[in-house]
Specification:
This protein is mostly beta strands. It is about 0% helix and about 60% strand.
Length: about 170
C-alpha cells in the first residue's frame, strides 16, 4: 500500500515559505505535557507534513505515552498560506472531538499561530478548551521545536506542551 505522505508532485511555489516543515519528524526525547487539571506527563510524537502539488500542506500528528507507548492525541488537517503574504492558517481536527482554525504568521523558520475558531462535539470532555496558541521553530541545529499553550473554561492561557523533533525523512 502506498503511503499517503508519498510526494510525487512538484511543490506549489506558494508553499515555499513553509517548505522547511515538509517531511516526517520524530521526537528526539519525550516531550513534556502539563496543565493544572491533569497530571504532568511525557509523550513521544511523530509529525508528517506532505503535499500533493496544491497550495496546501497536509499534516498528521500522532502522540504516544512515553512509557506505555499507548496512543494518545491525534491531529490531522491542512495548512494554507494567504498568497503574497506571510499569513498562515491551520485547519485541524483532533481525536478528542475538537476542531479548530488557527491563524498566524510565518517569519523565516518560525511559525506562530493562535486559535480563531473552535468547535467541539456535544459530549466533549470538560473543561472545554477555549483558546490554543502554538509555535513551531526550526532551530539552527536542524531540530524542530513545538510549544502549545491552551486556555480552558477555568484556566487562563498557559503552556501545555513542549517537544523537540528530528527529521526522519
Amino acid at each position: 500500500m502506498e503511503s499517503p505522505f508519498y510526494q510525487t508532485a512538484d511543490l506549489n511555489p506558494g508553499l515555499l515559505p513553509l517548505d522547511w516543515l515538509l517531511g516526517t519528524w520524530e521526537s528526539v526525547e519525550p516531550g513534556e505535557g502539563s496543565f493544572p487539571s491533569i497530571n504532568p506527563f511525557r509523550y513521544t510524537e511523530k509529525l508528517h507534513f506532505s503535499h500533493v502539488g496544491q497550495p496546501v500542506i497536509n499534516f498528521m500528528f500522532n502522540a504516544f505515552h512515553a512509557e506505555t507507548k499507548k496512543p494518545l492525541h491525534r491531529e490531522c488537517g491542512f495548512i494554507r498560506l494567504q498568497p503574497g503574504t506571510n499569513k498562515v492558517a491551520f485547519i485541524i481536527a483532533q481525536n478528542s472531538g475538537l476542531v479548530e482554525i488557527e491563524e498566524g504568521e510565518v517569519t523565516g523558520h518560525q511559525l506562530n499561530l493562535h486559535s480563531q475558531a473552535l468547535a467541539r462535539i456535544s459530549f466533549a470532555k470538560q473543561p472545554h478548551v477555549q483558546q490554543i496558541s502554538r509555535m513551531f521553530q526550526l532551530r539552527p541545529d536542524g531540530k524542530l521545536e513545538q510549544t502549545v499553550s491552551m486556555a480552558t473554561d477555568n484556566q487562563p492561557l498557559m503552556q501545555h506542551l513542549h517537544i523537540t523533533y528530528h527529521r526522519s525523512s
